[in-house]
Input
Amino acid sequence: MTDRTRILLLLGPALVLVGGMVLSALGLALLRSLHLFPVVAPDLSAYATVLGSPGFLASLALSVWIATVSTALAAALALALALLLRRGFPGRGMVAVLVQLNLTVPHVVGAIGLLYLVSQSGAFARLAHAAGLIARPGEFPALTHDPYAIGIILTYIWKEVPFITLILLAKLQTLGEGHEQVARSLGATRWQAFRHVLLPQLAPALAAASALVFAFAFGAYEIPLILGAHAPEALPVAAWRAFTDVDLTRRPQAFAISVLVAGLGIALLLLYARLTLPQRGRHAG
Amino acid sequence: MRLELQGLRLAYPGAGLATISDLDLVAEKGSLTALLGPSGSGKTTVMKLIAGHLSPDAGDIRLGDRSLLGLPPEKRRVAMVFQDPLLFPHLTLAGNVGFGLRLRGLPPARIAADVEAMLARVQLAGLGDRRPHQLSGGQQQRAALARALVLRPDLLLLDEPSVGVDPLSRRSPALTRASATRCAA
Amino acid sequence: MRAETWRLLAGVLVALALVLPLVPLAIWSGAHGWRYPDLLPQQWSGKAWTLALSDRGGVVESLGLTLTIAIATTALAALVGVPAGRALGLYDFRGKRLILLLLLAPAILPGIALVLGLHDLFLRLGLVGTTGGVILAHLVPVLPYMTLVMAAVFAGFDTRIEAQARSLGAGPLRTFATVTLPVILPGLLTGALFAFLVSWSQYLLTLAIGGGRVQTLPLVLYSYAAAGRNDVAGAIALIYILPGLAILLFTASRVTGRGFGAVLRP
Output
């Protein structure tokens, strides 16, 4: 058996399953959004309707806001946490275990937990009441079902900071402290060693993890479902609502949204691949 | 510059490093001092103490007329070349050698000239645009040496200076003509 | 203050923040009503747990279904993913980047981008609303995950030990069972446990392909929360995080640093 046949036999089933499902899903969504299937009546009306509707644009803006803010804050906090966990302090092991524990908690649990924690009748509101800061629930700042999606963003930060932190810790472990010590010996202050030596080496891993987080925060459904406001809805919620609408003419619009989101996802995928996959015939630099 | 270690002691230097108890050592200005000992005897620990990557439990480290204790590594004017070259992978060879000069805020033209001259001294002329992974083991080691020498440190610490250096360059001009006090292990 | 003290303080803050959202869930699960503005419930009761663990609540049934789906998905993914990971880890060939790109796609494409199309596909295959359909759909995120983890495992695998076993008289199957499998087992086990969690945590995919008829734990959890039964939701949430907790305790001793990067998903 040649290597070629062997590779084909080993990879075949996985490729058929994943490739089959992913490509047909993307293809079907595209066809349905263009009214090309099952009856061929091609037109761009679904895209025109979606792109022309204020509701869609508001949902898109909200999802971009959620994903951008969540990713930026999670990345910054994760960087700080990874640097903290690299140093020794009493209780470091405990924090490390909690970080890993958090990673295994499903998002839906985090979202409901956060709802019970920060809603206007949640645990924090009760604490504020007990401290005499508020008299009625309505006086507690709206952190859930709010226009700024603060509850949603908090959930993503809670879930994704540990994710990015663990990726950074793995990278830090491979890097070691040698480069920074050399930099210090060459006259770099602690900050300069971080800024000019450590950060550039961490940047690809940080960017790759951030791309994953951005894509997830942009496209996840259950978190905005639980914590989001009724209008505007996050894009995934809006798309699912259009998809399940009794008015079947809205389905192509839902498919159009999913195609647009897939376009963004493919861009993120290419960015992620550039950052993580070894480059053939080029220097990793 | 005269290097003087007085009663240097370190009980817990961290993973993989040997302990030091009551070490006294004097190295005169312009001299070359070699620390010899079996692996695990603490040569690297002593160098990291002098360079400021570790702090002693007791004793003093004096260079010239000042004590180095309490000074962070970057203020000691002590350059340490580690056993591994540890070139910065995100910078070119010239970027690596010019690293310390840039931190001092020297004008770019001056940095470029110093780097070029230093590369020539360690027989790496013309390779400034290469990335570290494009250099051989011996070239990387010489680059690490150049990166330290270009700063004209008061004291140059070389940890296992012959590891990875090909025999020809072991007697490189840079090693024999440096004016700093040198300690090698 | 010493730097270590600051780090200790920061560490305590982080630990608190990590645990905090789970606290109200635990309180609710034992509360007999928990009216605003009471800091703690006036009365405690086990009724949420009794309901969750009884036949009436649908939770036990859902727990079994969720476990079945996650175990079946993981087993299928291992069956198909181990050979695929071997090909990717050991060989370099034309088109490999494209295949890696395809395998990364389900992890990176936002859920909503694939789910609607998948629903359409499964509708045509008559699989919507079936447990088998949900298992197959869960393979979309789980199988690439398993394959990539196994590719990392095989990248560090020395095939010469297999050649050695063959020359000592072992057939291909025997070689796999006695030489290859024991060597890849730690990686396979870790990959499988986290693959299980990927399936275990699916929400939208199950909702779409299950068509409301395949009620896994996250869907039941949401129903109770949406119906205002915070106490039952709290109990289900705690049940729901148990497998992850067990997996973490099981792997914590072995999964550290370097190897961990390969098994992470947001």
